[in-house]
Design a protein that fits this description.
Layout: H1 15-30, E1 35-40, H2 45-53, E2 57-63, E3 74-81, H3 82-88
Antiparallel strand pairs: 1-3, 2-3
Length: 89
Amino acid sequence: ELSWFVLPEHQKLGFATEITKTLLRFAFNGMGAERVVGSTHPENPASNRVLEKLGFECLGEQHHTYDDLPGFEVQVIWALRREKWLEKG
């Protein structure tokens, strides 16, 4: 599991997209993963857009309590299959 936060002064510069692309290349090409699953906060449209732009499919919401992450009780779950990643090239 990985997560990152982009400071406001560095947002909208493509960093999250490039980080995610690099991780996907490693997961699919380096590790041979068949599927990558991600989660975002429902009130973070920028993160949702990054995954959508890269071909992830929205699977819906997950409700869970994280003791060390208050405010993240609801998350949007996304998945990207290897075949779809390879199609996008």
